[in-house]
Amino acid sequence: MNAEFAAAPLSFIAKNRMAEERAAADPKYRRDLEQRGKPLLSHARTLTDEVLLEKLDRLGIEIDKNSYAEIAEHALAAEEIARTAVTSEARARFRGRFEEDWVWLALTVLWERWFPQWPNFEQLDDQMQAGYALSDNDSPGVCEQWWPAWEDLRLMFDKGSFKNLAEFDDAFRGTDLVSNWVVDLEMELINAAGRDEKWHERRNQFGEEFLRQFPNEDRFMREHLRRTLTETPVEAGGVSLQTDFDFGEKGIPLDPPPAAAEPASHGHEPLRGSAAPAVSQKIGRNDPCPCGSGKKYKKCCLSKDEAARQKTRASQVAASLQREEAAIETAPPALSPVLPVSPANWNEGAWEKDKLPPETLRRLDELWIPFEALSKPTAEQMDTLLSGLLELPAEATDWADLFHRFARAGHPELPAVFRRIAGNVAHTAEAGLAYFYWAAAEEMTHRGHRQLLPEVAAGFQKLDLESYDADALWQLKDWLLAAGFETETLALEEHFLPILRADDELMPYAAPDTCNLIFELRVGAHLRDDSTPEPDVNRLTAELRRNIEADIHLDSARNAAAVIAICSPETPGSRAEFELVMGDITEDTKAWEDCLRLFRALVQVAREAWRFEQRSPGCALRGLTLMLNSVYDAPRSGGKKPRNTSRNLLDHLLPAGLEARLVRSCRDMIGVNEPRARLMLEAHDVLLHFATRHQLLSVPEIARSRQALDRLKRQLNQGAPF
For 663-687, what is each residue's pLDDT tens digit? Predict the structure, then answer.
């Protein structure tokens, strides 16, 4: 397999899916894609073979069915072939911003039509997501969709000579982990077995095939499958079935028995389900364990199943959460979180070339053509290019793209480059500097210059209603918060609040969301400054609501002020303080009181984060709010039922469903918002420290949560050029 392909970030099919789903739900985003000419797989599937082949030929890629068959027969993905096909010579032919996208799009569709007998990663991803999209109570339908995918997975696993599913996931890089999906498949087979004997037989077949083909997988999963296969006869839907499997001369593969799961010591239970559900229903924590032990699922195989779900994968989470800064050299530009303009096609970028005078176009050619001929430009050559561009009208250059290119080329003095551009380019709407500051925040963080983020924020504040961009502002804010610059973030948000209120192109929630952040950061600032004993609560309440009175309820401000005013350490909290709110806070007095109680608890957590760990309390409070929102949003996010349905926020520190919730809550235009993911992971860490200090979780739960968080942090950092 192409090593570059295996090491790449999130797959093209996964990124395309994110774009397709957002386009379907967001008309503004869909129009933006259409205006920019961004092609998607759904469009490519409407074109004939002849049109697709013509597109490939125009891009310098000559292929027919026979020659493609010779390649596809030995490949695992159309993306793998596309990456190999797009050589530097082929790329030189590209003239449009999104032409490189068409290589993968055309190859994917042609594979679907010409070689359906050969499974590939794109088809497997589609099959997995088709099953996830079905109703939660349609396990037979899910199994009908997923069983062919299971057979395809086994074929590709052998074809690629993978050692285990973690290695397969590293190459697959799909919308969901295959190592998690196989566990979901087994659960769906269990639920479907109660409705149709066929699925009981398939479930046993699944277990046998899994044990044969995946000898290096998690021992909990293997032991669970081994035990269920040897229990005969098995009752499935009232039909007694005798199982008889042939494991060859070596017999059933045995693994060391797993350690018994330790019960929680604090005596709480998550949201209860039905006490005796039908076999066809989903298996809840309090339902009988499907292994037949007679115990509740949560006290028997749940921990083992969750361990299988949380199997460590070396780079997948990092790939899905890490900004794909290096992808531009090997992947279609339109599939990167930042959509840079290729300098070879500079005049087809964000600006309109027909508005530039001929002499400017001629000078741009003189600057760019020799620079593009350099395989590894030096700092001096990059500085020369920059000097020439600074002499031209500001709108003739995509400054964000230029900064990204210099960073990827390894310019040794990025801060100096930033200052030259920020200090010499007019901050007009035509210059597009909002995106430049966004690019600078991203690259400064990745290249070890976090300390310059306040300078980036100060530069952004030179923009006005006509020259700023709301998306760039929110991205910059996320980078600042992830780095702990709460004072600078507060100044930035207070500065732009009047501009956001005046911007009639924004959604109605934009300004209120900014007011909420300002409120949280002000609370954090007062938690940090606790030198004055017992400040006046009324004065503090007014200060917290200054200029945001219409969006911050008086009770909320008084609630926070009361916590701030108590400067002495609080007594240890209780789990009850972290119970989630049930009901409509606008109509239910009890729900509103619970909302105030829960926010008060989060403020206390942020206070301790500052006192005991010197973590920015405003950033901690913001991250805790995002975490809380992600828990509330999980049941409404569509797709499958959340794995963790507890009514207590502390229980959502546990590994079950953590990764999926994190990715879902940090979804960006394409890909995942890396700084927001960092902020949320930090908030989980802060809350876990609080729960540990006050013994609000059991020792085993703390250990499992710590392991999961450390793994996600480690994977998020892998590959980042700090």
Answer: 778 876 445 688 999 999 999 999 9
Average pLDDT over residues 496-523: 92
**Rounded CA separation 497/383 (Å):** 36
Give the CA count within 13 Å in the CB-facing half-sphere of 612. 15
Residue 166 has what pLDDT? 87
- What share of the chain in percent tops pLDDT 90? 47
Sign of CA dihedral 627, 628, 631, 636: negative
User: Would you say 439 and 402 are in contact if contact means Cβ atoms under 8 Å apart?
Assistant: no
The answer to whether 473 and 495 have CB atoms below 8 angstroms apart is no
Residue type, 493: E
Distances (CA, A) of 95 to 31, 346, 625: 23, 10, 45
| Tokens 């050299």 sit on residue | 329
In 239-307, which ranges are E strands?
239-241
Which of 294-298, 344-348, 522-526 has maximum average pLDDT?
522-526
Q: How far apart are CA 316 and CA 26, in angstroms?
A: 27
Q: How far is CA 179 from the centre of its chain?
A: 17
Tokens read off for 675: 């700084």
> What DSSP designation does 236 have?
E
Angle at 559 (CA atoms; ends 554, 563), nearest 5 degrees: 145
b/e 3-41 (16+ beta carbons within 10 angstroms → b): eebbebbbbbbbbbbbbbebbeeeeeebeebeeeebbbb
In the Cβ-directed half-sphere of 648, how many Cα atoms lie within 13 Å?
Answer: 20
Helix (H, G, I), strand (E, B) or coil at 211: helix
Residue pair 323/673 in contact (Cβ under 8 Å)? The answer is: no
What's the pLDDT at 669? 46
More confident residue, 388 or 278: 388
Is residue 104 within 8 A of residue 12, CB to CB? The reply is yes
The structure tokens 């608890």 sit at 601
The residues, ordered by sequence, that sit 6+ positions from 384 with a Cβ below 8 Å of its Cβ are none
H/E run at residue 234: strand 234-236
C-beta separation of 177 from 169 below 8 A: yes
- Element holding 235 (H helix, E strand): strand 234-236
CB atoms under 10 Å from CB of 321, counted, come to 27
Phi and psi angles of residue 297, each rounded to the nearest 5 degrees, phi first: -55, -40
Where is average pLDDT lowest: 64-68, 87-91, 95-99, 317-321?
317-321
Report the candidate in 699, 582, 676 with the shortest Cα–Cα distance to residue 627: 676
Q: Which of 620, 616, 574, 578 is nearest to 597 (CA)?
A: 578
194 touches 337 (CB < 8 A): no
Q: What is the pLDDT of residue 138?
A: 83
Positions of E strands within 513-594 = none
Instruction: Determine how β-strand 234-236 pairs with β-strand 239-241.
Output: antiparallel
